[in-house]
Structure formats: C-alpha cells, structure tokens
Amino acid sequence: MNLSKREKIMVMGLAVFTALYFTYNNVYKPKIEQWQTQKKALSGNEQIKEKLDRNMLNKEELEAKVEAMRLVVDELNQALPHEVYQENSILYIDDVFSKNNLEILTVDFVEPGEEKGEVESGSLEDAIEDYMKYLDKGNKIDVKKYEMLGKEEKLEEKEDEDGEEGEEEKPYLFLEATISFSGKYEDLKKVLEEIEQNRKKIIIKSLGVVNTPMDIGGKITLQFPFYPDGRKGENGDWSIASEYGNIDPFSTGRLSILNQNKRKTDAVSSERESTPAVSVDSDFYVVLKPISSDMPTVTMGKSPYRYTAVYEDSNSFKEAKIYIKKEGGEYMFRYETSSHGYPSASKEEYEKLQLFGDDIVIKVFSMARLNEKDSSGLVLNVYNETDKPVKVYVTGDDASKPRFRAVPKKGTVNTQKL
Questions:
Q1: 88 by DSSP, 3-state: which?
Q2: How many Cβ atoms from other residues are within 10 Å of residue 305's Cβ?
Q3: 190: which of 92, 100, 179, 223 fits an S-S bond (Cβ 3.0–4.6 Å)?
Q4: What is the pTM of this model?
Q5: DSSP notation for 134-196
C-alpha cells in the first residue's frame, strides 16, 4: 500500500508519540513516583531528626538538672546527716580542741532525743537554708529561739491561707556533748570559728567562761543534729587528721621506703580526684574539673557555704555571669549559669554580700588538661558596679590552654594567676 508523504509523516509522528508514551509510562513515571516517595520519607525523617535532637537536648538539660539536684541533696546530707556517731564526735572534738591548744578536762554526752514542739511545721530544707543564711550574715543567735519564731510565723501564714495547720514534720534529733576546757581566750575563738565553718552543721547551744588565775576555763555544749530516715552507716566518716590506732610495724626500716612511696602516690591521686577545699578567705569560689571527673566541670558559689553553688557539666566552654553592685551602702550579688542562678532564677533578685576583706575576691581552683579531648572550661563575665575592685585569683590552671577566663563587663576586674 502506497502512502502519501503526508500520511508517512503522520505515521512516523504517531510512532514517535507512542514510543515516548511507553517510555514515560514504563521508565520515567515509576522513577518520578519513587523520587516523590523518597522526598516524603526524607521530609518525615528530617522531622523525626529534629524531634530527636530536641529530645536529646531536653534529656541533656534534664540530666544536668538532675545532677545538680543530686549534688544539692548531697550537700544537705552533709550539712544534716542521717546518723551521728558518738565515737566520731569524740574524735572530732579532740582534734579541734587539741590543735587549737585548748585542754579538754571532761566530755559528757546526752543520748539523742526528739525536739518537741519546735519543728512542728515547715520545711526542713528551708530551716537549714535559713539557718545557714543567718550565720552567713555574721549573726550569733539562740538557735532554738530562732527556729521557734520561724516556725510560728510559717504556721500563722499557713493558717491564714487555709484556716488549718499543716501536717506535722518528722522531727530531727541531736547528739549533745558538754565539754569542760581550759586555755587561752584566743584559742577558744579559733575553736568556735572552726566549729562554725565545719561542713556538717554543729550547733553551739551554750558557752560559759570563767577567769582562772592563769587563763580561762569553762563549759561549752555542742549539738550534732541529724535527720534519721532509717538509713544507717552512710555518714559515719569524718575527715580528721589524727594518729589514733596501732603503730604501723613497717613504719621504720627498709620497708618504710615502700610505704612512704605508696603514701606519696596515694596523696597525689587523692589530690587529683578530690575537690579543693573552698577557702574562707575569699568572697566567691569557682572549681573547674575535666568531664571525666565525678564532679561537675563547673562549680561556682559563695564562700564559705557550699549550699550556694550552681553547676555546669559539659566537655566544652560554658559561660557564667556574676553581678555585684552597691545599693544604699550595702553590697549585693547574684550569679548565674545557662541553667541555674543564685539566689534564684529571677534576674531581679540579689542577696546581701558581707565582704571578707577590703576587696571583692574570687578564688578559682582549676587543673591542667588531661589530654587533647579535654575541652571543659568557663568564661566568667564580671559586672562590677561597686567602688571596690574585683580580684580574681586563679590556681592550678593549664598553662597552654587555660580552663578559665574572666571577662570584665563593668568596673575594675583584676585577674592574677598564682
């Protein structure tokens, strides 16, 4: 059959169109559908990734808050333990009095008994915090009178709000010791200061002093409070430097060299792992650790009480801010990290600052970096709106890659590496 030229063109066009249709329908269309499916899957995966990232961030923040709360609870447990042992108290009393040259004549103990009518309501944690803040202001108080007034005020507020009394709190107990002593007045002051600065709360219930022909003598009654909750033996260790017990038979001779080397090794290891003692000759302190430490990488607080601490725990540089100002002749302060603040999270709340000396002192306890992966550190922004300089003393920091850097934002800030 002969086709005209026009018909041939039309047939060829139809053939090309048919080939294109089958190619598109069998090759390109499945690919397009597959691409659209993958695009939807990618979009869904991106949303899942963003959700997981948010969950991870929230988890890290939650873990940091839980760790901070755990440390706060540990500090409260140290301040008010679950058990006090008479043996440890005897060692502590002997250590404090002996090294300050006060002679102990007699020590009498009274078995723990419940405090009736003085802790009927209110929060135990609030009572501890109020008491430590009160001491921090330099006041010497009748503890029982203060506690009774505080509880009555809280009880009145509670009755005004709901018209009924709150539930009775579980009472805490005291191990009471009365010590007769003799010595010098200056040494007695040292003993009292050391008792007040002890990390475990010790209450000076009463003190009576009389003049003697040579020096002074008297009696002091101490109360060791604890809050029993059924746990035993968790707070029985007191760090006391003493030489009680049997003599080491290997302390002399050739074996003594091995013992001395071991003691030196243990001392270095203990020094690396332990947190530096917060010095009482400063107004604020900062402790920096590597991420491998059991402690947070950043701990910052007000000297000498640790209950004021805020924390960060990260293998990277974190940022903190400290604000110090003078209002009405009084010095005020607050500080904050990315997740915590003291005295509260509110940026408007400040606390009164009683200076230790003529200047405002911040002591920073740092340590050398362990390896290249050790990247933790702190940038401290200092806002000094006072008439005094802020002096920052840094101890033990890494020479080549320091963990700490102070940034003056306002006022005079001097940094010195010791």
A1: helix
A2: 19
A3: 100
A4: 0.43
A5: HHHTT----HHHHHHHHHHHHHHHHHHHHSSPPPPPPP-EEEEEEEEEEE-HHHHHHHHHHHH
Q: Report whether pLDDT(19) > 60.
A: yes
Residues paired with 317 in a beta bridge: 377
| β-strand pairing of 103-114 with 310-312 | unpaired
- How high is the pLDDT of residue 32? 86
Say what the pLDDT of residue 126 is: 55
Q: What is the CATH number of domain 86-140+169-226?
A: 3.30.70.60
Q: Which of 371, 317, 318, 328 is nearest to 353 (CA)?
A: 328
How is residue 240 written in tokens? Answer: 């006391």
Among 94-98, 113-117, 136-140, 256-260, top mean pLDDT goes to 94-98
Backbone angles phi, psi at 240, to 5 degrees: -130, 125
The residue with tokens 């002679």 is 103
Domain locations in the chain as residue ranges? 1-78, 86-140+169-226, 284-417
Over residues 56-78, the mean pLDDT reads 71
Q: What is the dihedral of CA 349, 355, 361, 366, to 10 degrees?
A: -70
Mean pLDDT check: name the lowest of 27-31, 163-167, 363-367, 385-389: 163-167
Largest CA distance in the chain: 148
pLDDT tens per residue across span 151-162? 444 444 444 554
In DSSP terms, 198 is beta-bridged to: none
